[in-house]
Amino acid sequence: MDAFGLMVGLEKKDAFEGWFSKVDAKEAGILFSVIWGYTTHEKTKHAFIQFTSSLDHDTAYISYPIEEMWVEENPFVLHIGNNVLSKEKMVLDFVMDGKNVKGSFRFGELSPIRTSFLKPGIMGWLTHFPNECNHGIISMNHEVSGNIAVGEDSFFISGAKGYMEKDWGISFPENYVWAQANDFEDSSIAFSYATVPMLGKSAKGFFLVLHHEGKEYRFSSIEGSFMLDFKVREDAFVAVIQKGRYKVVLKAKQLNPVALASPDHGEMRAKIKESLDGRMALLLFKGKEKIMELQTERGSIDVDFGEKAD
After folding, report:
1. CA end-to-end span of the chain
2. How would you write the pLDDT of the chain (310 residues) with one tens digit per residue?
3. I need a labelling partner for 26 at 20 to 30 A (CA). Which of 54, 116, 129, 302 fits?
């Protein structure tokens, strides 16, 4: 299943859909993310761009009339105002806090996760059922080249790291954490742990995907992995996960978090706290042997877990 295209559409009431594109241009001195989305909420229906950068660790939400959003098919291209997103390129053209933001980028070959009929996406067989929030990983890592100007500051970008994912449905999970990083030489990480409604009740679920030197390690609560330990506080968490002989320890701490708009029954009225460049560390063990260690201070991290874990 290719989740990059429209998964909701404008006819479904009180729903949302969003694309997250991150560019880590360390050598150019800028790290930024762009959330492209729309809401079909009856009273507040609109499209939007949400831009966050490391320049001032601030975020801006730019709203557009829903009529200014349109798509091309085969291949899928998303247009919101003068902004354009596809699997091959991204064009930015908007005003943020009185500053013009203009950018043009080309994407290299995307790195999707492994899929099959029973596992069409990162949510596994749950993808085939209606969910309040659906999640899809478009690319764990890809090369980005281009340029961006934010007000008077201009940046030429070559060989930067890119990441893309999607969410769609009605609301974000009641409690969740999320982390992503790919500024390593040949590794990329994506993780989430959430409380989600299921069959009239609430259940906790998680996934962790690690791409390393061409190999995919996947840990998921619906594919035989177990959360051995999980500790969370206001701006950090630690997760310990087991799958067979493999055990992974993931530590994440937010730095310079900002408040992003998020969906609540289709309306972009809720807030989540996200750090664009947080501190992350991952340890991977096979039996008692440590086979991998990754550390970064350029990890994107959400912590929205009102229900504190021990």
Report:
1. 37
2. 688 999 999 999 999 999 999 999 999 999 999 999 999 999 999 999 999 999 999 999 999 999 999 999 999 999 999 999 999 999 999 999 999 999 999 999 999 999 877 677 777 666 666 778 888 999 999 999 999 999 999 999 999 999 999 999 999 988 999 999 999 989 999 999 998 766 566 778 899 999 999 999 999 998 889 999 999 999 999 999 999 999 999 999 999 999 999 999 999 999 999 999 999 999 999 999 999 999 999 999 999 986 544 4
3. 302
